C-alpha cells in the first residue's frame, strides 16, 4: 500500500557500483558459498523487475507511484506471462546441485515455483498468485492462471469463487495472497525461521527489507555469531550496517558473475508439466488431469480432445470408447504453447491404469518435448469428484453471506473507484441485496460472477475483473 512507500528521496534513490567492484564482490560471494554449511537466499520483488513485473518501493514501484500520484510509464507484464529471470534460474541450478539449502521469498508472482524451485525447499511467505487453498480441508490447487480473489467485500475476503472438489468437502477456495494486517501462513513462516536459524550465509536479492516479520529472517543471520548476511539491492536497506557485504547492482548482473565463479551454467527456462491419463474400466471412464511436482492438482489446460470429443472445462472425464484414441490437449498459452497431440494405446488388464507424461516446453523455440514416464505408484485422483467442475460460482448467492441488507454497501465508480477517480466515499444502499437477488446478470455480456449496479440507470454491468462493461458504461454515460 502507498503508506509503506519510502518517504525519504534518499531511500528511493538507486545506487550502481562500478563493474569491477561488483565482480570482486561476486568472487567473494562465491567463496563464501563454497565455505558455507547452510546457504539460504531471501528474495524480494527486485528479482522480477527484469521479467517486466513492477516492484513496490523502487523509483517506478507500485507503492511509490501511488504515493506520488503518478501513473506508470509502461504496463507491467502479467505474472502468468512473465519469464523467470537469470536470477531465478541461477537459484534453481544452485538448489539442484545442493548448494542452496533453502529459499525464502516475499514474492507472490509464482515465478520461483514456475522456474523449477521445489515446493519443499521454499517458503512463499506472502503467498502465490497461482495457488489457492480450501478453507475447509486445506487441499491446495495450482493454477496456470491468476487464482486471486476479487475481494468482493473487503481485502480480507479471499474467496476466489471456486469450490474444493475433494469428495465430501465442497469448501470455499481461498487465494493464498497475504494482504496487509494479515497473519503469515504458519508452515512457511515456521520453516523460514527454522532455516534462517540454521543458516550461516544468507543472500538477500532485490528486497528493501522493510516488511516484518519476513525481513527478520535475513536480519537474524546477520546478527548471529559467524553468520554472514549479503544484500544485493539497488537501494539502501535498514540492515546494511549489519551486513557482511552490500552489493549495489542489478540482481541478474551479480548472480551471473557468482555463477561464473562457481562454474555454474545458468539453465534456460523450460516450462515443466506432468499430465496423467487415467482409465477406469469398471466405470467406463477416462480422465485427463495434471499435477505439480509435489502431486498437487494443477490446472494447465483450456481444453482436452479425446475420443473425438472436445471438453473445455475441468474435470476432463470421457466415456471410455475403445483402447486406442488420439489425444489433443490445449495449454493455457501464456508462452504461446501450441496444442500437444498424442496417439494413445490404453490397452490394459487393470481396472484402473495410468499413463503419465513429462511435458517440457521451451519458450525460445516454441517446441514441446513429451515423453512417457513410469511412476512407482498410482497418482491420487481424489482432487476431482466425478461430475463437479471448476467453474466459478456466484458469490452473491452464497448462503453464508448475511442477508441483512442494512449491512450492504455500494461504491459509486464515478468518483469512488481508484481506477476512475479518487476520494473514496462509500454509501449505504439498503435494497442492493434484493436487487441482486432479482437480477445480477451483466446487461452487456450476461456474466454473473462480479457485477456493479448503476445507481442512476438501474442496470447491472460486470466489473473490471471480468470484461469491464461497468467501466465502459460509466465512460459512455
Structure in words:
The chain has ten helices and 24 strands. Helix content is 19%, strand content 25%. The radius of gyration is 25 Å and the shape is globular. Strands 4, 5, 6, 7, 11, 12, 13, 16, 19 and 20 form a ten-stranded mixed sheet that branches. The two termini are 31 Å apart. The protein is of the alpha+beta class and 477 residues long. A hairpin with a 5-residue loop joins strand 4 and strand 5. It has helices spanning 9-12, 19-35, 62-68, 86-96, 111-115, 186-198, 214-223, 251-261, 432-438, 469-476, and strands at 39-43, 100-105, 122-124, 131-134, 140-143, 159-163, 172-175, 201-205, 228-232, 245-247, 271-280, 285-291, 297-299, 301-306, 309-311, 316-319, 324-331, 340-345, 352-362, 367-373, 409-411, 426-428, 451-453, 460-462. Helix 2 (19-35) crosses helix 8 (251-261) and helix 6 (186-198) runs parallel beside helix 7.
- What share of the residues lie within helices? 10-25%
Estimated structural class: alpha+beta
Largest sheet data: 10 strands, mixed
Low-confidence sequence ranges: 1-6, 382-438
DSSP strand content: 25-35%
How many beta-strand runs?
A: 24
Give the overall shape, derived from the CA principal axes: globular
Task: Report how far apart the termini are.
Answer: 31 Å
Number of helices: 10
Alpha carbon gyration radius: 25 Å
User: How would you state the average pLDDT, rounded?
Assistant: 82
Amino acid at each position: 500500500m502507498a503508506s509503506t512507500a519510502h518517504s525519504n528521496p534518499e531511500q528511493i534513490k538507486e545506487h550502481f557500483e562500478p563493474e569491477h567492484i561488483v565482480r570482486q564482490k561476486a568472487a567473494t560471494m562465491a567463496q563464501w558459498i563454497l565455505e558455507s554449511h547452510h546457504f539460504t537466499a531471501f528474495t524480494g520483488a527486485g528479482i522480477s523487475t527484469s521479467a517486466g513485473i513492477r516492484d513496490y518501493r523502487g523509483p517506478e514501484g507500485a507503492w511509490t507511484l501511488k504515493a506520488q500520484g503518478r501513473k506508470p510509464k509502461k504496463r507491467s507484464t502479467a505474472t502468468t506471462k512473465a519469464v523467470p529471470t537469470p536470477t531465478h534460474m541461477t537459484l534453481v541450478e544452485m538448489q539442484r546441485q545442493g548448494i542452496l539449502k533453502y529459499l525464502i521469498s516475499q514474492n507472490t508472482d509464482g515465478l520461483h515455483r514456475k522456474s523449477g524451485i521445489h515446493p519443499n525447499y521454499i517458503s512463499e511467505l506472502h503467498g502465490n498468485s497461482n495457488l489457492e487453498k480450501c478453507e475447509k480441508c486445506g487441499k491446495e490447487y495450482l493454477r496456470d492462471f491468476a487464482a486471486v480473489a476479487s475481494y468482493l467485500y473487503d481485502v480480507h475476503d479471499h474467496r476466489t469463487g471456486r469450490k474444493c472438489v475433494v469428495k465430501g468437502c465442497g469448501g470455499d477456495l481461498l487465494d493464498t495472497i497475504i494482504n496487509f494486517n494479515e497473519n503469515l501462513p504458519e508452515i512457511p513462516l515456521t520453516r523460514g525461521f527454522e532455516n534462517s536459524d540454521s543458516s550461516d550465509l544468507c543472500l538477500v536479492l532485490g528486497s528493501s527489507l522493510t516488511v516484518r516479520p519476513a525481513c527478520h529472517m535475513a536480519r537474524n543471520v546477520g546478527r548471529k555469531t559467524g553468520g554472514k548476511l549479503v544484500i544485493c539491492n539497488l537501494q539502501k536497506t535498514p540492515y546494511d550496517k549489519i551486513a557482511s557485504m552490500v552489493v549495489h547492482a542489478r540482481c541478474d548482473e551479480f548472480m551471473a558473475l557468482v555463477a561464473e565463479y562457481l562454474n555454474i551454467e545458468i539453465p534456460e527456462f523450460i516450462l515443466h508439466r506432468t499430465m496423467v491419463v487415467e482409465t477406469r474400466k469398471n466405470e467406463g471412464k477416462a480422465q485427463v488431469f495434471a499435477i505439480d511436482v509435489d502431486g498437487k492438482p494443477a490446472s494447465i489446460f483450456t481444453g482436452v480432445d479425446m475420443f473425438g470429443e472436445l471438453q473445455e472445462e475441468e474435470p476432463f472425464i470421457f466415456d471410455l470408447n475403445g483402447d486406442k484414441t488420439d489425444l489433443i490437449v490445449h495449454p493455457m498459452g501464456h508462452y504461446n504453447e501450441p496444442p500437444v497431440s498424442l496417439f494413445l494405446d490404453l490397452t490394459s488388464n487393470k481396472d484402473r491404469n495410468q499413463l503419465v507424461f513429462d511435458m517440457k516446453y521451451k519458450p525460445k523455440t516454441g517446441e514441446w518435448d513429451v515423453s512417457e514416464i513410469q511412476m512407482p505408484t498410482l497418482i491420487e485422483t481424489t482432487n476431482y469428484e466425478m461430475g463437479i467442475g471448476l467453474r466459478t460460482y456466484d458469490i452473491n448467492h452464497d448462503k453464508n453471506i448475511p442477508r441483512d441488507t442494512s449491512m450492504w454497501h455500494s461504491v459509486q465508480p464515478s468518483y469512488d473507484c481508484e481506477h476512475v477517480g479518487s476520494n473514496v466515499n462509500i454509501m449505504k444502499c439498503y435494497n442492493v441485496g434484493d436487487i441482486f437477488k432479482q437480477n445480477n446478470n451483466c446487461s452487456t455480456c450476461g456474466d454473473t460472477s462480479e457485477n456493479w449496479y448503476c445507481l442512476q440507470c438501474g442496470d447491472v454491468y460486470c466489473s473490471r475483473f471480468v470484461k469491464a462493461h461497468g467501466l465502459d458504461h460509466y465512460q459512455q454515460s
